[in-house]
């Protein structure tokens, strides 16, 4: 390609001149091509790889030089000799003679540069060139990546790093390429080349470790082997990016969420010297946004715009606190440098004024932000205050427009900004009943049953039972707690904008008052933000979801009465109905989760302390942000945290870990503890204290508390002999955890009823237990937990994938002659083909082809395009040149339900017949493929629909297009297959039940046979045998036609036939008959094998009568010379002879030939004899007469060899990534 001229001082260094003239030089890089360039070429090639030289991608170049100058200019480079030669010839023909006119060398140089730049500009204009963010250096890396590993354009490179790969004890210096779906490595050292390609989806472990010899190593593990990479310039950046890409791959395996690049990122400066790609910046921005959302409990779609160091004035202690300000689309947040010192969240919907205050030595670059609840926040020491104010102003303008748009359809909910402010201000007013908010700002609705009242406030306020005494010590303590919280909110601020400090945490650990629990849960979890920004959402969801029935609603109904049945709030229809509405609404909102057991227990507790809508948004925060993937169909999140808990137990209670692992207790207890947040294993009044801490601190509280429980029972657990005894010890301990400050009446705990009648455990105070967990295990950090979660997520999801594979193989192994090892390898190939299409398949809907909720055998499904790839690699009848039509036919036969997708069972059923079936089964498959309606060719009459076996009356329809458009023609054969399947289930299929093959279908069958043999070793012998069989079958069809179509019939027979087909008498127009003959007759009863009556074409009756002896055959030129057994059906190669009127017609379709004998030159549309047909018995008997054909179809198939070949095969346009990773290939 032409490039902007760049000066070169040493033209001959490391380059070989191949052509030259007075002004231009064409050069090739040393070490490139067949010659290699000897030792110098090997050294240059090695240096190019190690130093990431662009010459590795473009080994040819053209230099410009004036005769008297020592400076050269590179004006073009090329990846191939053909490309560079085209440029060279253009220069010779268009530029060389013109340059001789100039007298001044400077003028020549200016002219050449201008000409080249003009060519580049014109090319960019014609190609609709779009300027992107990637630097020229990174574009070179993309070109290298695609060239080295055969990747298509859809595979996006994220970044590449210099490193060493360890193969055995020998390090190979090269480059590690990290793309969206693969990790690749390339090295070239003194003629030896090393390549590695691993899919992220196949990685089972990714960690950063240190050894005695190698201080920093990244280890990438798959099911097959481990790969070690070292000597990184920035190992932390590389590892973080690898983690992020592996996470994306796991997410795709888990819920089909592919990667979509964010195009809204700001443009990179053109002069930037960095090689950072737009994708890398996108992933970096995503990682920062994820940490930002997790830190401040913000909605999942919030994106961080930027952050800066600053100070915040805190009025409660009269200090300036050093920290960072974070600005995003809808929030301004602050976090102190020291943990728990102070954090702040300011929603932009609450902001009224943002102004720059006067700077001073004491308070440089201050910024004041005022909110609707009359709080003012003062930030200072801002480095770029003007830019920051402009960004906040832009976001504020967007927020104002959003509020205006939302108020239009829901004006009854929020009539004014003041009302919104008053609602938020009253959120923490601490008044026992919140009926004012419910009556003024919320619609009353009753969607379950007109006779059932709807809960408009927390169920606990409606069913609270006070003790007979008006005042007792517990109530006094509760009153003091309320006063402490009110004082704190007065001093530190109310609502979302409150200052969150260490004192706030201490108050939470002391217990939240009963009256304020639901409101503070909303605040600390961040659910209040989503609820306020989605007014009316819950009510609309309830209206849409109620009355809908599916698997989730059935499970919800089954578990409704198992949710806190001991609590009076759920012993009547009001509490049950509220629980039903919340669970059903969430299942409708998030069908990927739907409903999972344990959600009912958690939701019932939320309803006790919050109104329905608040409980719904708390459930959203719980399932989608605070406990990610906990409640999906495979409880992946809980299994991940179970693995994290095992790691923490090994680190913090090592003396107990081995014992617990031997007993298998950790895996048993952790699921019930984590899924229900201890609500199912602790007394209710104690467990809600755990929930208080969880909403404030997150999952680390659950880990701390679980470790404390194990630590408190360490001696008893070490003495346990089995898991039952250990579970009893832990059950007694948790049953004894009490909340002495609770004002609630004792609620019987069902878990305690399941334990034995042994001596009860001494009471344990819940507040002391929580304090102890913070003292002993409070050092656990949230970022460390996330690191552990990543490691465990890889393990858990790959374990689930392995379990799926084993279950599939176990289910299908009795149905097929394949062995277990073969089935496992075939399943990996099948799944890989599905995943590859997900990577590079464009805009296909992934959820249609992968649904984890389906049975194991049906989870992964492939379409016809993917099947074609596997057909070429695995099926014995495939060959590269003619596989497409046969693959399409085979796919349609396997697609039993006609949804244009096949699952693994259907795939294996077809492959089993071709590999291990007997001769009759194989020929039956081949025969069936051609009975179905054809979609494999553009010729309108090359094939006809199935015979009377499927429908009572069928009229032919033209083909709908090539097999690639198969998904649009599914309905053509869907009904045929359904009827065929139903019939075959009730009656075992026999050869006599198969429908007849008409002449059009027979022609396609012959074409298929010839295409199957085109690359066989015994090709000529098979062609001769096929010609003999074809001749025999043609004669059989002619003889059979005599019995099906006897001579002239009486007028009575004609009238009877006319009546049966619904045609008018002869005196009526025939057009009416033609139109009506296309409709299936509902009353005609005919034999299953009767020929289908076909609508006459536009040809004359005389021409149609000449078609009684039409035939079709295919062969090669060599066969024509040798074969004398079928001389009456002369076969000619396509286009090699001209036909006389009495010879065969030649129809050229692709590379094959279809020849039809006739008595005259007829149009192609009338070349099919509609009365001609053969049966499967005739086809089978004819094939058995030829030993070459019998030997071909009975030839044994080495399936393991085909599988191995499929793993290593490189397909056209891309690498066949059909297994976890390639062996390192070394070539001299």
UniProtKB/TrEMBL annotation:
Annotated spans, Disordered: 1047-1109
Start and end residues of each EF-hand domain: 882-917
UniProt KW keywords: GTPase activation, Repeat
Pfam families in the cross-refs: GRAM, RabGAP-TBC
Gene Ontology BP terms: system process
Example of a GO MF term: calcium ion binding
Signal peptide segment: none
SMART domains in the record: GRAM, TBC
Ranges of biased composition (kind: Polar residues): 1075-1088
Biased segments, Basic and acidic residues type: 1050-1062
Domain Rab-GAP TBC as annotated: residue spans: 511-698
InterPro entries associated with the record: EF-hand-dom_pair (IPR011992), EF_hand_dom (IPR002048), GRAM (IPR004182), PH-like_dom_sf (IPR011993), Rab-GAP-TBC_dom (IPR000195), Rab-GAP_TBC_sf (IPR035969), TCB1D9/TCB1D9B_PH-GRAM1 (IPR036014), TCB1D9/TCB1D9B_PH-GRAM2 (IPR036017)
Entry protein name: TBC1 domain family member 9
Species this chain originates from: Gadus morhua
Classification of source organism: Eukaryota, Metazoa, Chordata, Craniata, Vertebrata
């Amino acid at each position: 390609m032409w490039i902007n001229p760049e000066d070169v001082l040493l033209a001959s260094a490391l380059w070989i001149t191949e052509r030259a003239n007075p002004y231009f030089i064409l050069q090739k890089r040393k070490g490139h091509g067949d010659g290699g360039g000897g030792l110098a070429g090997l050294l240059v090639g090695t240096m190019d790889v190690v130093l990431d030289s662009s010459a590795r991608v473009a080994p040819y170049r053209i230099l410009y030089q004036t005769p008297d100058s020592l400076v050269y200019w590179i004006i073009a480079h090329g990846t191939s000799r053909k490309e560079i030669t085209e440029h060279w010839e253009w220069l010779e023909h268009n530029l060389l003679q013109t340059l001789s006119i100039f007298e001044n060398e400077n003028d020549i140089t200016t002219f050449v540069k201008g000409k080249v730049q003009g060519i580049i500009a014109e090319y960019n204009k014609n190609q609709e060139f779009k300027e992107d963010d990637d630097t020229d250096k990174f574009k070179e890396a993309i070109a290298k990546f695609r060239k080295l590993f055969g990747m298509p354009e859809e595979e996006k490179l994220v970044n590449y790093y210099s490193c060493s790969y360890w193969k055995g004890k020998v390090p190979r210096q090269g480059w590690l390429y990290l793309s969206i779906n693969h990790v690749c490595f390339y090295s070239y050292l003194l003629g030896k080349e090393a390549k590695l390609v691993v899919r992220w989806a196949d990685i089972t472990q990714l960690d950063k470790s240190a050894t005695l010899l190698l201080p920093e190593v990244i280890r990438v593990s798959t099911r097959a082997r481990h790969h070690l990479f070292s000597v990184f310039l920035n190992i932390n950046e590389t590892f973080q990016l690898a983690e992020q890409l592996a996470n994306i791959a796991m997410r795709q395996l888990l819920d089909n969420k592919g990667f979509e690049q964010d195009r809204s990122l700001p443009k990179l400066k053109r002069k930037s010297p960095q090689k950072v790609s737009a994708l890398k910046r996108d992933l970096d921005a995503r990682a920062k946004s994820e940490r930002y959302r997790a830190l401040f409990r913000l909605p999942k779609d919030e994106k961080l715009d930027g952050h800066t160091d600053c100070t915040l004035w805190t009025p409660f202690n009269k200090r300036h606190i050093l920290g960072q300000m974070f600005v995003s689309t809808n929030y301004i947040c602050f976090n102190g440098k020291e943990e728990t010192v102070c954090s702040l969240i300011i929603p932009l919907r609450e902001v009224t004024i943002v102004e720059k205050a006067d700077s001073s030595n004491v308070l440089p670059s201050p910024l004041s932000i005022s909110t609707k609840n009359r709080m003012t926040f003062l930030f200072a020491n801002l480095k770029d205050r003007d830019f920051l104010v402009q960004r906040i102003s832009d976001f504020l303008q967007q927020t104002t427009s959003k509020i205006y748009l939302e108020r239009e359809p829901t004006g009854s909910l929020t009539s004014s900004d003041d009302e919104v402010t008053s609602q938020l201000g009253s959120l923490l007013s601490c008044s026992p009943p919140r009926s004012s908010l419910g009556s003024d700002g919320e619609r009353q609705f009753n969607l379950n049953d007109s006779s059932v009242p709807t809960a408009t406030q927390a169920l606990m306020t409606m069913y609270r039972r006070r003790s007979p005494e008006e005042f007792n010590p517990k109530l006094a303590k509760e009153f003091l707690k309320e006063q402490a919280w009110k004082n704190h909110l007065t001093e530190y601020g109310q609502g979302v904008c409150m200052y969150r400090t260490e004192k706030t945490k201490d108050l939470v650990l002391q217990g939240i008052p009963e009256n304020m629990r639901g409101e503070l849960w909303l605040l600390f979890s961040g659910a209040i933000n989503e609820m306020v920004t989605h007014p009316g959402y819950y009510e609309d969801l309830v209206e849409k979801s109620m009355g809908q029935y599916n698997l989730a609603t059935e499970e919800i109904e089954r578990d409704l009465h198992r949710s806190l049945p001991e609590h009076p709030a759920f012993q009547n229809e009001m509490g049950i109905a509220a629980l039903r509405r919340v669970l059903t609404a969430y299942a409708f909102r998030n069908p990927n989760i739907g409903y999972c057991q344990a959600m009912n227990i958690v939701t019932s507790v939320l309803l006790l302390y919050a109104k329905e809508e608040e409980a719904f948004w708390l459930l959203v925060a719980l399932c989608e942000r605070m406990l990610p993937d906990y409640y999906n169909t495979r409880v992946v999140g809980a299994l991940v945290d179970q693995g994290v808990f095992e790691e923490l137990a090994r680190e913090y209670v090592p003396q107990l870990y081995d014992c617990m692992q031997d007993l298998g207790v950790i895996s048993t207890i952790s699921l019930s503890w984590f899924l229900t947040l201890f609500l199912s294993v602790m007394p209710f009044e104690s467990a809600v204290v755990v929930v208080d801490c969880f909403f404030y601190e997150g999952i680390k509280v659950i880990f701390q508390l679980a470790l404390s429980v194990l630590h408190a029972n360490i001696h008893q657990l070490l003495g346990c002999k089995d898991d039952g005894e250990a579970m009893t010890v832990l059950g007694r301990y948790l049953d004894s955890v009490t909340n002495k400050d609770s004002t609630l009446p004792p609620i019987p705990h069902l878990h305690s009823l399941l334990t034995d009648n042994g001596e009860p455990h001494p009471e344990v105070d819940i507040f002391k237990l929580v304090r102890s967990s913070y003292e002993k295990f409070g050092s656990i950090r949230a970022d460390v937990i996330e690191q552990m979660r990543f490691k465990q997520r890889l393990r858990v999801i790959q374990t689930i994938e392995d379990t799926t594979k084993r279950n599939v193989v176990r289910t299908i192994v009795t149905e097929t002659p394949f062995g277990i090892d073969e089935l496992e390898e075939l399943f990996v190939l099948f799944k890989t083909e599905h995943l590859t299409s997900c990577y590079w398949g464009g805009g296909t809907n992934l959820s249609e082809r992968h649904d984890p909720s389906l049975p194991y055998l049906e989870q992964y499904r492939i379409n016809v395009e993917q099947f074609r790839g596997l057909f070429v690699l695995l099926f014995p009848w495939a060959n590269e040149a003619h596989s497409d039509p046969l693959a399409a036919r085979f796919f349609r036969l396997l697609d039993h339900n006609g949804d244009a997708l096949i699952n693994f069972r259907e795939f294996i059923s077809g492959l089993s017949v071709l590999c291990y079936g007997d001769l009759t089964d194989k020929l039956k498959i081949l025969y069936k493929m051609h009975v179905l309606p054809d979609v494999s060719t553009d010729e309108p009459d090359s094939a006809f629909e199935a015979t009377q076996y499927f429908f009572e009356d069928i009229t032919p329809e033209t083909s709908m297009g090539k097999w690639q458009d198969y998904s649009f023609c599914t309905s053509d054969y869907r009904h045929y297959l359904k009827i065929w399947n139903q019939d075959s289930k009730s009656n075992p299929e026999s050869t006599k039940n198969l429908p007849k093959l008409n002449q059009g279908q027979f022609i396609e069958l012959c074409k298929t046979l010839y295409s199957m043999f085109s690359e066989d070793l015994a090709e000529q012998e098979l062609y001769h045998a096929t010609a003999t069989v074809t001749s025999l079958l043609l004669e059989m069809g002619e003889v059979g036609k005599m019995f099906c179509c006897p001579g002239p019939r009486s007028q009575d027979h004609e009238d009877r036939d006319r009546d049966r087909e619904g045609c008018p008498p002869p005196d009526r127009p025939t057009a009416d008959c033609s139109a009506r003959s296309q409709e299936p007759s509902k009353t005609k009863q005919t034999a299953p094998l009767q020929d289908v009556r076909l609508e006459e074409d536009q040809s004359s009756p005389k021409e149609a009568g000449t078609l009684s002896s039409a035939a079709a055959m295919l062969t090669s030129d060599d066969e024509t010379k040798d074969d004398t057994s079928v001389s009456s059906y002369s076969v000619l190669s396509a286009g090699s002879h001209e036909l006389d009127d009495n010879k065969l017609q030649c129809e050229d379709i692709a590379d094959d030939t279809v020849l039809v004998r006739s008595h005259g030159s007829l149009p192609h549309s009338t070349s099919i004899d509609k009365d001609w047909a053969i049966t499967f018995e005739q086809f089978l008997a004819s094939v058995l007469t030829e030993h070459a054909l019998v030997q071909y179809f009975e030839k044994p198939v080495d399936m393991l060899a085909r599988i191995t070949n499929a793993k290593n095969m490189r397909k056209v346009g891309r690498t066949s990534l059909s297994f976890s990773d390639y062996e390192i290939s070394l070539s001299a």
